[in-house]
């Protein structure tokens, strides 16, 4: 009980663990930290372990650029923060908080416990980074086909569960082989990157853009009916067509054809159904002269 706890400089301290208790707690923590390769999962395990030992009420982790901040528990008025690294590799910052000030003995204990976290955390960050790279197209730095398959399945399930609209744009760069043949593959790659930028600038922050393969792109539009999808598709088409591309001092233009398929809230669709309708619409757009948007419904 707190009333029986030792006091240092007016701060109530939790009783120190005996060597046997600390060894047992260390063993249980190390075992638990081997069960997850998710940074958030590891931090939750670590937080749950430290709470009864040091009466910590909150934990805040600021990760690297590709790993968002994580908040656990309830933030207190008193903080202690640590910059985590291992072999000069930065692993982020971690802040513990609670309602009472931390004593020197407790700060030393936190540092000891953190030494058991850094190796599993680094492994998890590396794993998540590799997983993220495996979902990225290396040229355009947007999601690849694998990422698209996962996202489309997830978004369609959400749309059906909450009876929401969902639309899909299938975009193809017109006469892309001609661009490669005339200007070279390096310039063709630049065209793909420029088209990627136009697609992202023309869509909304909530829309998901992927390179499906070759010169084809997919945009998933959540909570969007056919009318809304058509507006976004036309904006993309117009901006691509009006963009002047440069090569060795010469200007040229490219265009895109776009097929649209929509899942309406009262319909039952599979991912394959939705994608096949978008593909048919794209085929019609190319058959009818390219540089146009066709809606399949």
Automatic annotation (TrEMBL):
GO terms for biological process: cell adhesion involved in single-species biofilm formation; negative regulation of bacterial-type flagellum-dependent cell motility. It catalyses: 2 GTP = 3',3'-c-di-GMP + 2 diphosphate. One of its GO terms (cellular component) is plasma membrane. GO terms for molecular function: diguanylate cyclase activity. Its EC number is 2.7.7.65. CDD domains: GGDEF. Coiled coil: none annotated. It is an enzyme of class 2 (transferase). Its cofactor is Mg(2+). Residues 164-297 form the GGDEF domain. This is diguanylate cyclase. The lineage of its organism: Bacteria, Pseudomonadati, Pseudomonadota, Gammaproteobacteria, Cellvibrionales. The gene is abfX.
């Amino acid at each position: 009980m707190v009333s029986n706890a030792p006091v240092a400089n007016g701060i109530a301290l939790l009783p120190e663990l005996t060597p046997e208790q600390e060894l047992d707690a260390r063993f249980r923590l190390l075992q638990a930290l081997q069960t997850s390769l998710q940074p958030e999962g590891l931090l939750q395990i670590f937080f749950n372990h430290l709470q009864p030992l040091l009466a910590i009420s909150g934990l805040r982790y600021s990760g690297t650029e590709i790993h968002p901040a994580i908040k656990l528990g309830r933030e207190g008025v008193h903080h202690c923060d640590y910059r985590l690294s291992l072999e000069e590799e930065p692993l982020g910052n971690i802040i513990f908080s609670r309602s009472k000030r931390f004593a020197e003995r407790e700060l030393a204990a936190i540092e000891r416990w953190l030494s058991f976290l850094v190796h599993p955390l680094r492994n998890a960050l590396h794993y998540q980074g590799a997983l993220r790279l495996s979902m990225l197209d290396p040229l355009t730095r947007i999601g690849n086909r694998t990422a698209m398959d996962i996202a489309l399945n997830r978004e369609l399930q959400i749309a059906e569960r909450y009876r929401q609209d969902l639309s899909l744009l299938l975009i193809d760069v017109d006469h892309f082989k001609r661009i490669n043949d005339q200007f070279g593959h390096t310039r063709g790659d630049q065209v793909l990157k420029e088209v990627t930028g136009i697609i992202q600038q023309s869509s909304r922050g909530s829309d998901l853009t992927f390179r499906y393969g070759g010169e084809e792109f997919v945009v998933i539009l959540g909570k969007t009916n056919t009318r809304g999808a058509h507006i976004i598709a036309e904006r993309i088409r117009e901006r691509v067509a009006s963009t002047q591309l440069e090569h060795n001092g010469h200007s040229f233009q490219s265009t895109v054809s776009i097929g649209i398929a929509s899942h309406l809230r009262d319909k039952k669709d599979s991912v394959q159904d939705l994608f096949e309708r978008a593909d048919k619409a794209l085929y019609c757009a190319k058959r009818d002269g390219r540089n146009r948007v066709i809606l399949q419904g």
